[in-house]
Amino acid sequence: MENIMVKGRLLGMGNFAHVHLAYCRPFGGQFAVKSVNSSLSSSLLMEETILRRLRCSPDVVYCFGGYSTQEANGDSAYNLVLEYAAGGSLGRLMFSRTSGSPESEVQWYTRMIVRGLHAVHREGFVHCDLKLSNMLLFPTEDGRWRVKIADFGLSKRFGREEFCRPLTFRGTANYMSPESIVYSENEAPLDIWCLGCMVIEMFTGKPTWRIARTRMT
Length: 217
Prior knowledge:
Elements: E1 5-13, E2 18-24, E3 30-37, H1 42-53, E4 63-70, E5 76-83, H2 90-95, H3 103-122, E6 125-126, E7 135-139, E8 145-149, E9 156-157, H4 178-182, H5 188-204
Antiparallel strand pairs: 1-2, 2-3, 3-5, 4-5, 6-9, 7-8
């Protein structure tokens, strides 16, 4: 696969991974390639394992597989090939509006997120980092956007920790549930809490919680 995928522009980046738009040489088509240094590839390999289990769900981003490459600086990288979301993230769409979204539109997106989340939980996983920026948009024939759940880098099995990075806090601060903060409990109820936060944000166009910035002395 490394010989047929050509990386293009940068789509986004996180603490560990970079995501590039990519093209398939012999067949054409656009893909998103998520890459990390091989020394940090364990989370990406976990993500690939989870997405393979969820391939039958139309509400979860599709994974075509992974491959290793040798980078120009001499480092090796692991790459995950995902379907490309032409519409970007649901977060970008929602927060571009000043007065929130109508109920019918919120219902449209929420229905797909709930179906995707049901598939994740049915397979025995907790996403642990549901947020609007991890909901990706794909065009439909009727001109609307279809949403799919993405970014399973922090996901885990129910009751088990081997699918997570060993962090005390797991997720995004203003989406974390009280029990995940106080007791480090990261189970299915955390995802439901995050879902509620997303619904509020779609209605209002504003973050559910505002995290105060404090200066350490």
